């Protein structure tokens, strides 16, 4: 996989997820979690091997800003996304860096940690309330989606 394609896909998936939540509300979150955030989790691990920490942080911040620029009404969604993705990225990166074994094992292990952090923070910040059913569905969907995407990415590039 080309680095430019991976960065573009990462930013596009995050931005599309944010804009769809701004448009359709929390009910779309589990669907986004599997397809778009699962992709982001797997790409984040792929990018962590190839980017410096500050570059990953800049990418996360830039995609949050892009969401806001494309749809200013999504302001709270963009803020929630940037906060949740930054926290999840740090947890994911730390977990990925500490795990030993194959890239696939490390990616899936870190996806569990990153998915848990992201799933708790995003809806709580975006909608101003803790929604346990949304959090639980998101964790399951993100871990499953991340595993599928990690398998696809790992088969082609790792």
Outline of the structure:
87% of the residues lie in helices and 0% in strands. By secondary structure, the chain is mainly α.
Notes on the protein architecture:
With 158 residues, this protein is mainly alpha-helical. Helix content is 87%, strand content 0%. It contains six helices and no strands. The protein has helices spanning 3-24, 29-50, 53-70, 75-98, 103-127, 132-157. Helix 1 packs across helix 3, helix 2 (29-50) crosses helix 4 (75-98) and helix 5 (103-127) packs antiparallel against helix 6 (132-157). The termini are close together. The model has no long low-confidence stretch (mean pLDDT 87).
Average pLDDT, rounded to a whole number, is: 87
H-E string: HHHHHH
State the total count of DSSP E strands: 0
- Could you say which structural class the secondary elements and strand pairing correspond to? mainly alpha
Low-pLDDT parts are none
What is the number of helices?
A: 6
Distance between the termini: 9 Å
Instruction: Report the sheet with the most strands, covering strand number, pairing sense and barrel closure.
Output: none
DSSP helix fraction: over 70%
| Shape label | globular
Sum up the structure in keywords.
mainly alpha, 158 residues, 0% strand, 87% helix, 6 helices
Topology:
Layout: H1 3-24, H2 29-50, H3 53-70, H4 75-98, H5 103-127, H6 132-157
């Amino acid at each position: 996989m080309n680095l430019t394609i991976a960065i573009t896909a990462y930013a596009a998936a995050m931005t599309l997820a944010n804009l769809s939540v701004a448009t359709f509300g929390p009910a779309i979150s589990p669907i986004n979690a599997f397809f778009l955030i699962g992709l982001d989790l797997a790409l984040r691990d792929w990018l962590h091997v190839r980017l410096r920490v500050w570059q990953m942080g800049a990418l996360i911040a830039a995609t949050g800003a892009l969401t806001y620029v494309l749809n200013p009404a999504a302001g709270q969604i963009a803020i929630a996304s940037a906060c949740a993705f930054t926290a999840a990225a740090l947890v994911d990166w730390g977990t990925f860096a500490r795990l030993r074994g194959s890239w696939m094992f490390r990616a899936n292990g870190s996806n569990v940690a990153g998915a848990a952090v992201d799933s708790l923070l995003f809806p709580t910040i975006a909608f101003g309330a803790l929604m346990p059913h949304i959090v639980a569905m998101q964790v399951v969907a993100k871990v499953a989606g991340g595993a599928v995407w990690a398998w696809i990415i790992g088969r082609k590039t790792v």
